[in-house]
Amino acid sequence: MESIPGSCFCGDVRFELEPPTEFCSHCHCESCRKSHGAAFVTWTSVPENRFRVLQGAQGLRRFERTPGIVWEFCGRCGSSMFYRSDEARGRVYITVASLSGPMDRMPDSHASYEEHVDWIEGLEQLPRYRAKTSERLQ
Questions:
Q1: Is 102 helix (H, G, I), strand (E, B) or coil?
Q2: Beta-carbon neighbour count of residue 66 at 10 Å?
């Protein structure tokens, strides 16, 4: 499989990773929810030597709330794209939503599910609509 490209929302930061990825999981921890403004964040990881920032490295900002875990995000648009942890040296964790190409694996687990928000229960049963329309999808 070829490299998987990714970027931030504004496009200033571009990166790529080389599969295979090590895992793919939805994380429900409070840190992920608060840093992304979402019910959960889907993560994957690769060894550092298979991850490259191609453009915009100088625009990346770093934030360390928990000692040893450094979150990296675009300084222009605020997109949180990756983090590194002292506990997993040599590995970079990447948000799957920031990737532009197809993944080599599907999410296969939920992490920190004991911290999940109760309002995600039953999501699969909700009606689905086409973007910005009232057209219902099957």
A1: coil
A2: 10
Q: Which DSSP letter does residue 99 get?
A: B
* pLDDT for the residue 36: 94
State both tokens at 24: 């793919």
What is the number of other CB atoms lying within 10 angstroms of the CB of residue 31?
A: 16
As a whole-number percent, the residues of the chain with pLDDT over 70 amount to 100
In this prediction, the residues of the chain whose per-residue pLDDT falls under 50 are none
Which token pair is 52?
Answer: 């490259």
Domain spanning 4-137: CATH 2.170.150.70: yes
In the block, residue with structure tokens 């979402």: 38
| Angle, alpha carbons 43-48-50 (nearest 5°) | 85
Residues whose CB is less than 8 angstroms from the CB of residue 52 and which lie 6 or more positions away in sequence, other chains included: 15, 16, 17
80-85/14-17 β-pairing: unpaired
H helix or E strand, kind and range, residue 72 = strand 69-74
DSSP letter, residue 22: S
